[in-house]
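Quick one, tokens below:
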């Protein structure tokens, strides 16, 4: 957990630098010199009058589908022999601030506990919405979001081996018992609060980082032991609460555009001396 927090704060700092550098300038309103036409001979000597020209900013909001993959789950199997998994992520922009969001994935995880060794294999789906509270400049589309998800998983558990607990081990610890019993058709459901960052690094290409806080509301347990790992929910060692995170790369597919006119803020007249 200590290393996870270190990576999290480092990633947040990196995104902050990217967002600031990506939006460092704004166009400044221009002024136009208008030469008034003289109405009389006396007016021919009048000096040019400088008038402020209304220069509203036109911002284009793009609406469409963003689809990507969780790099953490995809690459974890390269260094963790007990894990295989993949997660597809996606969101669709509904309004200026709200996005429909969903994740679909598969996980195969072997958990080696003090008393038993079990393997969980299954698929899951999560759906909900995200709210973007980051104020972009002009046509930038970076996101800092908070959202809510509902998750559902269907999976199987296989009890590979276990040890019988003996509170008085006079003759020493008992040997491991190999089992291999498999329990199919298990289900689990949960709610989660999701917080994330997404930054556009190239045209339509986004990289992101997210953290999820989960609450287990439904858990179908196999006979004789508990679910130590639930696909999509993560570990269950801390009771009904869980934590997850992801690193994503996604591509935005624009479908339609809306133009938004941002009126220029009128300048206050200087006080007379």
């Amino acid at each position: 957990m200590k290393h996870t927090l270190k990576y999290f704060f480092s990633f947040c700092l990196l995104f902050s630098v990217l967002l600031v550098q990506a939006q460092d300038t704004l166009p400044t309103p221009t002024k136009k010199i208008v030469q008034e036409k003289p109405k009389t001979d006396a007016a021919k000597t009048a000096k040019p009058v400088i008038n402020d020209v209304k220069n509203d900013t036109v911002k284009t909001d793009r609406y469409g589908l963003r689809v990507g993959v969780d790099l953490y789950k995809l690459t974890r199997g390269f260094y963790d022999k007990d894990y295989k998994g993949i997660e597809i992520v996606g969101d669709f922009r509904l309004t200026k601030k709200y996005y429909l969001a969903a994740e679909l994935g598969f996980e195969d995880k072997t958990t080696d506990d003090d008393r038993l060794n079990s393997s969980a294999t299954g698929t899951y789906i999560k759906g909900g919405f995200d709210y973007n509270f980051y104020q972009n400049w002009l046509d930038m589309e970076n996101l800092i979001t908070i959202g809510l998800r509902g998750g559902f998983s269907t999976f199987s558990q296989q009890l590979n081996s276990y040890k019988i607990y003996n509170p008085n081990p006079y003759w020493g610890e008992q040997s491991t018992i190999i089992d291999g019993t498999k329990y199919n058709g298990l289900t689990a459901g949960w709610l989660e609060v999701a917080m994330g960052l997404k930054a556009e690094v190239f045209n339509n290409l986004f990289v992101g980082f997210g953290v999820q806080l989960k609450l287990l509301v439904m858990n179908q347990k196999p006979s004789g032991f508990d679910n130590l790992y639930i696909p999509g929910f993560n570990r269950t060692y801390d009771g009904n609460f869980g934590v997850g995170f992801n690193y994503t790369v996604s591509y935005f597919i624009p479908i339609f555009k809306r133009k938004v006119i941002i009126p220029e803020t009128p300048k206050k007249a200087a006080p007379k001396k």
